[in-house]
Design goal:
The protein is α+β, with helices and mostly antiparallel strands. Helix content is about 30%, strand content about 40%. It has one domain: Aminopeptidase, CATH 3.40.630.30. Strand 4, helix 3 and strand 5 form a beta-alpha-beta unit. The longest helix is centred in the middle third of the chain and has 15 residues. The radius of gyration is 16 Å and the shape is globular.
């Protein structure tokens, strides 16, 4: 007899203040120099595009998107370590790109550590290209680390 394991539903939705503890925990466990709880709270209060990815009822990832002057900037995108490699980062990124598209954004920008091979691979897969380097952008153990600046030009249908 073969038993089937029921797939746990995954959903991207808007972040709420009730998600801040889970988001902050994922951030703290993922990075040596994490954003604070207050930074996430401020992003919500500022009206940024803040989203979480739920697996069942548990928050396992999040994304933060700023939109201004026809451009978008991905400020943060993270998946809890135990759920990486399952396509959840791609799911969040797809939602971010869709939100930017519907907002009429022409270009999405982001910074990423050149040492973050998994993130770079995902961004390249989705069509992002390196356009610049920001020297000493990230805090790092023993000093600072450069950032690669990536962009994605969105195509809009003519009406």
């Amino acid at each position: 007899m073969i038993s089937r394991i029921q797939e746990i539903p995954v959903n991207v939705r808007n972040m709420t203040h009730g998600d801040l503890a889970s988001v902050s925990d994922i951030e703290r466990l993922s990075y040596d120099f994490p954003w604070s709880h207050g930074v996430f709270r401020d992003c919500l209060l500022a009206g940024y595009g803040c989203m979480v990815l739920e697996r069942g009822s548990a928050v396992v990832g999040y994304g933060i998107l700023s939109i201004a002057a026809g451009e978008a900037h991905i400020l943060n995108l993270c998946v809890a370590s135990e759920f990486r490699g399952l396509g959840y980062g791609e799911r969040i990124l797809d939602d971010i790109v869709e939100r930017a598209h519907y907002a009429g954004v022409g270009t999405i920008f982001l910074e990423v550590r050149p040492t973050n091979a998994n993130a770079l691979s995902l961004y390249r897969k989705k069509g992002f290209h390196k356009i610049a380097k920001r020297p000493a952008y990230y805090q790092a153990t023993g000093g600072r680390e450069d950032a690669d600046v990536l962009s994605l030009v969105l195509r809009h249908s003519e009406s």
